[in-house]
From TrEMBL:
<dbReference type="InterPro" id="IPR000210">
    <property type="entry name" value="BTB/POZ_dom"/>
</dbReference>
<dbReference type="Pfam" id="PF00651">
    <property type="entry name" value="BTB"/>
</dbReference>
<protein>
    <submittedName>
        <fullName>Rho-related protein racA-like</fullName>
    </submittedName>
</protein>
<dbReference type="InterPro" id="IPR011333">
    <property type="entry name" value="SKP1/BTB/POZ_sf"/>
</dbReference>
<feature type="domain" description="BTB">
    <location>
        <begin position="2"/>
        <end position="78"/>
    </location>
</feature>
């Protein structure tokens, strides 16, 4: 209770959990993730590597533990890096879902990382069916910061039109 205001309010206040001293049910949380939260509260160390980092992050947000959310964000980005080591498209759907989840659970660094990742790998994500889930301000950001930018693609297209007209001798029609 000393390191978590939410637990202090739950267990020390007038809430149902505080009145029932023998047992408190934490809904929508796995035992493994809750034990990771408790370990973090007692030792300032979270066994994120051994557990489900996303579940721990969601639970950390629920219990208002921003430092633990940040630790989970870091671990999750490293997990994505390993996932896409050979092929970025392998993690496209995962990253889109991660973006939406991180925005719902106050993982701001992770959501910014996901947006940047999607924007810099735009052509890969654009062809993925899950890309339709990127909407509103998310799609605005991605479109604005996409790589390669539309201006570049338009210039390449214009160049190819001009270069595409070659004479029979293989020389460019411009020269």
């Amino acid at each position: 209770m000393a390191r978590c205001d939410v637990m202090a309010a739950m267990l020390g206040g007038a809430f149902m959990e505080g009145r029932n001293s023998s047992e408190t049910e934490i809904k929508e949380a796995s035992l493994e993730s809750f034990l990771a939260i408790l370990e973090y509260l007692y030792t300032d160390h979270a066994p994120i590597e051994e557990g489900d980092a996303i579940d721990i992050m969601v639970l950390a947000d629920r219990f208002c533990l921003p430092r633990l959310v940040t630790l989970c964000e870091l671990y999750i980005t490293k997990k994505v890096d390993k996932m896409i080591e050979k092929k970025v498209s392998d993690g496209a759907e995962y990253v889109v879902n991660l973006l939406l989840l991180s925005q719902a659970h106050n993982a701001h660094q992770l959501s910014n990382w996901c947006l940047h990742f999607i924007a810099t790998n735009y052509l890969i994500f654009e062809s993925n069916p899950s890309f339709t889930l990127v909407q509103g301000t998310n799609i605005e950001y991605v479109e604005k910061h996409r790589w390669p930018p539309l201006s570049y693609l338009n210039e390449v297209q214009e160049f190819e039109k001009k270069v595409g007209h070659t004479s029979k001798k293989g020389k460019c029609s411009i020269m």
